């Protein structure tokens, strides 16, 4: 080996430059930068060169556009115009909501109407059938003259809003009593069924009536601004010498146990007289009025008590209507 032995002449520079200590430091000049820049130690620091032209979404460090838009790192597709949402679903939704509100309101209105009535069917639906021998039976046809007297005037005859159980009127001042079913016969044939047929409400201090033609209702509570209370008197038409009987219990529970009676329901000041109903003569001119024998009904059983009556002038003081 000659004086230059140990390391032979350095071969021609490879693409990565020369070995250390042989020539210039490092590994010589780096190759021409690629699209990703120059590896560490060979010129350009890490970062891998110049990123592509930034897209609309910006450029991540050193790598251009995120993937998913036009190749590995391409640009996103051109943004198209934002379309307008159809109003049809909103319209259909609004119509559906409106219909739901209407149905709900109708149901509530029906419930209020039902609850405002005395619900006679509910009252008697669970009761046993009336005894077939207790008048009025389903074979009877009774008639009572009636009048609604407010302060000093009789109201016009009522008209049915609904024929309820066969106890109704023909707008003639007469209550026609021919029960359709035993549920409305006998001891269950009471004045509140008639009140329901004409949509009339009676309490201890008020009378409410309904106009069958217009549906308008009116409540009477005072007489010329003075306090008044509700009273009722019953007359036996075929026995005019018999004193009338004043109802001392619940007027709604008066039972139609006898044919050819007359009743006046009155809202009057304390101490005022109750006149007979003016429709009494019509009892003799009814075409559907078979004469039935008068029979005094038995008292109500159980906890429900029939109202009592008494003749005016007796020593027993009438009790207030509850």
Give an overview in words.
- The chain is an alpha+beta fold.
- It is 13% helix and 16% strand.
- The chain has three helices and 13 strands; from the N terminus they run ααββββαβββββββββ.
- It has helices at residues 88-116, 120-125, 191-197; strands at residues 142-150, 153-154, 167-169, 174-177, 201-202, 207-210, 217-220, 222-223, 226-227, 229-236, 245-247, 261-268, 309-310.
- Strands 1, 2, 3, 4, 10, 11, 12 and 13 form an eight-stranded mixed β-sheet that branches.
- Residues 1-5, 21-26, 68-72, 110-130, 291-306 and 308-322 have low confidence and may be disordered.
Q: What descriptors fit this protein?
A:
elongated; 3 helices; single chain; 13 strands; disordered N terminus; 322 residues; disordered C terminus; three-stranded antiparallel beta sheet; alpha+beta; eight-stranded mixed beta sheet
Q: What class would the helix/strand composition place it in? A: alpha+beta
- Element-level helix/strand string: HHEEEEHEEEEEEEEE
**Helix fraction by DSSP (H/I, runs of at least 4):** 10-25%
Number of DSSP helical runs: 3
- The shape is elongated
| Tally of DSSP β-strands | 13
Average pLDDT taken over every residue: 72
Major sheet summary line = 8 strands, mixed
Rg to the nearest angstrom? 51 Å
Separation of the first and last Cα atoms = 142 Å
Which regions have little confidence, pLDDT < 50, spanning 5+ residues?
1-5, 21-26, 68-72, 110-130, 291-306, 308-322
Strand content: 15-25%
* Oligomerization: single chain
